[in-house]
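Deliverable D5.2: sample structural annotation.
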Amino acid sequence: MLTLSSIVWTALAFALISFWWQGDMIKRHALAHLYQYFREQDLQLLDQTIVLEGVWPRRNEFGSLQLRRRYRFEFTSTGEQRYQGLIELSGRRLQRIELEAHILPDSQNRLQ
């Protein structure tokens, strides 16, 4: 027999799993944005890893409530030095990519 307590705990577990699953999909979406941007800029994402820095609710341009997520990552332009960057998404929509000042690769030092 189902009790109110078991229904609440099941709903809570389902909500947490759903939040984690959605977050993982958004993280993959952020990685896709970075790969495309880095291909265009001739940069390389290091360790193929981005780390969640923060999640907070925000209203979009239509007034709907969405979660804004910020991820940190490391990249290189020449293969010798590491630089920091961040990517911010509102829902699945890219808001911004910020890169630390870095050396621009010349035609001889381009990443492969």
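Annotation notes: The longest strand covers residues 44-59. Helices lie at 4-41.
The annotation will be released with the project's public dataset once the embargo ends.
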